[in-house]
């Protein structure tokens, strides 16, 4: 397990180490399939940013890399939100994981190439729209999103799992800065404290995602300078 921080001068070495690990795994994997890497963490932990950094670096290694963000596989608001146990309901019903893996991720991993037209839901959408996912001859799939390290998915489907460590305080500050889901500041705080953070606390308690990851990337200055830029290999 490896830890490092979010400052550019300390993130770059860890990105390089992760890329080296992916290259190693790619060489050992069957050539007929893609390598599947999961990047997960709480909301606003930096999953998309890390995925983009890795994709760019892997391109420099001549590895054809596709990034899949799972937010398009949200359920509609009437399905993913509930006034009864809002955090638990969101944890269980926020995302269409069965369809995501069955129709897109696992076939793409097996075949390297896939074209799929399926329902897509933006965060604020009240209806699905059709969207085409198209990937050609991928060496590596970077799958990024929340709840990817649920126990049900800790079954060997990922060739590498990365957990992006971030405090709830920093995540909320980032959500406020980017205007999460188009909400105002008070609505954002309310949504995070009553829905998203309780859901993710449940995920941490039930699934222990940090322990399930081979790599832990600390992407939060609040967690202390001693953790930023430090790499520990635990397995």
How many individual β-strands?
7
Relative helix content: 40-55%
Written as H for each helix and E for each strand, in order along the chain, the element string is HEHEHHHEEEEHHHE
> What strand line-up does the widest sheet have?
2-5-1-6-7
Structural class by sheet pairing and helices:
alpha/beta
Biggest beta sheet summary: 5 strands, parallel
Radius of gyration from the CA trace? 17 Å
User: How many helices?
Assistant: 8
Mean pLDDT: 91
The geometry reads as globular
Low-confidence stretches: 2-8, 228-235
First CA to last CA: what distance? 6 Å
Structural features, described:
This protein is α/β, with parallel strands linked by helices and 235 residues long. It has helices spanning 8-28, 47-60, 77-80, 86-93, 97-111, 168-178, 185-207, 209-212; strands at 35-41, 65-69, 114-120, 129-135, 140-144, 160-165, 215-218. The chain has a five-stranded parallel β-sheet with strand order 2-5-1-6-7, sandwiched between helices. It has a two-stranded antiparallel ribbon with strand order 3-4. A hairpin with an 8-residue loop joins strand 3 and strand 4 (129-135). Helix 1 crosses helix 2 (47-60), helix 4 crosses helix 7 (185-207) and helix 6 (168-178) runs antiparallel to helix 7. The longest helix has 23 residues, at 185-207. Residues 2-8 and 228-235 have low confidence and may be disordered.
Give keywords:
235 residues, alpha/beta, five-stranded parallel β-sheet, two-stranded antiparallel ribbon, 7 strands, 17% strand, disordered N terminus, disordered C terminus
């Amino acid at each position: 397990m490896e830890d490092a921080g979010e400052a550019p001068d300390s993130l770059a070495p860890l990105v390089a180490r992760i890329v080296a690990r992916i290259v190693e795994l790619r060489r050992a994997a069957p050539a007929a399939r893609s390598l599947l890497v999961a990047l997960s963490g709480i909301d606003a932990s930096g999953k998309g940013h890390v995925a983009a950094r890795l994709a760019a670096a892997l391109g420099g290694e001549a590895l054809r890399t596709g990034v899949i963000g799972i937010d398009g596989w949200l359920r509609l608001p009437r399905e993913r939100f509930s006034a009864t146990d809002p955090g638990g309901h969101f944890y269980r019903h926020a995302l269409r994981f069965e369809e995501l893996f069955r129709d897109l991720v696992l076939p793409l991993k097996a075949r390297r190439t896939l074209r799929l037209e399926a329902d897509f839901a933006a965060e604020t959408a009240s209806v699905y729209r059709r969207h085409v996912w198209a990937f050609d001859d991928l060496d590596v799939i970077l799958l990024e999103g929340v709840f990817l390290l649920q126990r049900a998915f800790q079954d060997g489907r990922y060739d590498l799992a990365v957990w992006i460590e971030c405090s709830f305080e920093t995540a909320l500050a980032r959500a406020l800065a980017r205007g999460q889901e188009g909400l105002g500041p008070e609505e954002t705080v309310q949504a995070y404290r009553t829905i998203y953070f309780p859901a993710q606390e449940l995920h941490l308690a039930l699934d222990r995602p940090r322990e399930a990851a081979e790599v832990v990337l600390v992407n939060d200055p609040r967690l202390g300078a001693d953790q930023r830029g430090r790499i520990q290999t635990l397995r």
